[in-house]
Amino acid sequence: MKKLALLFIGLLTIGTTTYAANTNSEEMARRYANYDGSKYVFVEAGIEFSVFPDGEFDFYIPRYADGVSVGVNAGPVSISFNTGFNYDPYIQYDDYGAVIQIEDTPLYYDHYGRLTQAGNVDIRYNRNRIVRVGGLFVNYNRFGAFDYCTGFINIYNRGYVWRPYHNFFYRPIFDRCLVWTTPYRLHYNPIRYNYAFHRNNYWRGYNDGYRNARRDTWRRPNNGRVAHNNGRRDNVDRNNARFVTPRNKGRSIAKNTRGLRNDRSLARGTT
Description:
Elements: H1 2-32, E1 40-44, E2 47-51, E3 57-60, H2 62-65, E4 91-93, E5 99-102, E6 105-109, E7 115-118, E8 121-126, E9 129-133, E10 136-140, E11 146-151, E12 191-192, H3 195-208, E13 241-244, E14 252-256
Parallel strand pairs: 12-14
Antiparallel strand pairs: 1-2, 2-3, 4-5, 5-6, 6-7, 7-8, 8-9, 9-10, 10-11, 13-14
């Protein structure tokens, strides 16, 4: 009887230890989620974003860049926006040269030019560093260095899985950096068109006045100058789109009169 009791206690101890180990492993996975604090990668509407701690970002659209061969030992490859792949037919720019929409996915910025929203993924900052991406909370130690993450971005992005092409996510070069210490976008409200309008006007827009077609010159926001397109805004066919400026949202949105969907404002204080 005594031996049976000892055997039972031994099995109970082993089971408790195993449960504790599994619980600790799950907690560690939940806390760290494979992020190292250098960037936060997630997929939204088929677009893969890489957001850096200061609010700069890069992106890659697999369905348009799939023809590029990328491997672990590959040399310099241009597949992302910042490495030079031409996504212009699918994206819209504002007057500062910021990407404000990719196909039907809107992008919003705070007053300093930091990305605050990509589609339905909100991004928040505190003391000039990222603290939340969707439902992923970023924690720092008392020295201000990255410590760990808790939660996950959303149900489609539960953790970071490294891919070889992630080596080709880069910050923008200095002359094209849009994150500044001055709130240069405080009173700026860009105009967004739905993707159907952009697609139909892109090729003729360069010479016929489509405002969001492409960037031709780069100007630093703190110099008080902005990037301008060659076309003039007053030449756009106003029968195809009308402009709505909802004051309570602080954004300008272009609405197609044929019932195509609009961009929705999901966070205040951003443009």
